[in-house]
Write a structure and sequence with these properties.
The protein has 171 residues and is of the alpha+beta class. The protein has 6 helices and 8 strands. The longest helix is centred in the C-terminal third of the chain and has 33 residues.
Length: 171
C-alpha cells in the first residue's frame, strides 16, 4: 500500500487489487450510482482494498482513526454500547453500504462499532487520501463529499423517524 493508505485496517487487512477490478466492484454497488465510469476509475486511486475476517472490527466505538469504508462483499453488524454498558445491535450492513463517514469528516471518535459477521471486502478512504483528492481532483472530491452528505442526511431522516416511532410507543 502507498504511504497515503496508512491506517490500522489497511495495515492489518489490506491486499493488492488491480484498479480496474476495484472500479468494477465499486460500480456494482448502489453507492456508486451518482458517479460516471471515469469518476469511479479515478476514485479507485484514493481507495485501498481490505479483507476483514469474520469477527474482526471494521471500526470500533470511541476509536480515533479517520477513514471510511465501502462494502464490496460480506455482512457486518453495527453495535453501540448502551448507558448500562450492554452492546446493542443497531443494524446489519451489506454490499454498497458505507461506514465511518462521520469520523472521516469531523475527526470525532467513532460513535459505534462495526463487526464483520462474515468475511468482508471493503474499499477504504483515509483522511490523507481525501485531502490528496481535494488538492489533485477538487471536482471529484466535491462530488464525493456531496455523496457523503446525502448519505448522512438520509440516515439522519431514518433515525429521526425511528425516534418519533419510539416516542409514540412510550406515550
Amino acid at each position: 500500500m502507498d504511504e497515503l493508505s496508512k491506517c490500522r485496517i489497511v495495515d492489518q487487512f489490506g491486499y493488492p487489487m488491480p484498479r480496474d477490478l476495484m472500479a468494477d466492484r465499486l460500480d456494482k454497488t448502489h453507492w456508486s450510482a451518482d458517479f460516471s465510469w471515469a469518476e469511479i476509475q479515478s476514485l479507485t486511486e484514493h481507495l485501498a482494498p481490505v479483507r476483514v475476517p469474520m469477527g474482526q472490527y471494521i471500526v470500533q466505538e470511541n476509536q480515533d482513526e479517520r477513514y471510511m469504508a465501502i462494502f464490496l462483499g460480506g455482512k457486518a453488524v453495527v453495535t453501540k454500547r448502551s448507558a448500562d454498558r450492554q452492546q446493542k445491535e443497531l443494524t446489519e450492513l451489506k454490499v454498497g453500504y458505507a461506514v465511518g463517514e462521520l469520523a472521516l469528516i469531523d475527526g470525532q471518535p467513532r460513535s459505534a462499532s462495526v463487526v464483520a459477521k462474515s468475511d468482508c471486502r471493503l474499499l477504504v478512504m483515509t483522511l490523507a487520501h481525501l485531502q490528496f483528492m481535494e488538492v489533485e481532483k477538487p471536482e471529484l472530491c466535491c462530488k464525493f463529499l456531496k455523496k457523503l452528505a446525502t448519505t448522512l442526511a438520509q440516515r439522519l431522516r431514518t433515525t429521526s423517524a425511528s425516534l418519533v416511532d419510539i416516542m409514540v410507543e412510550q406515550i
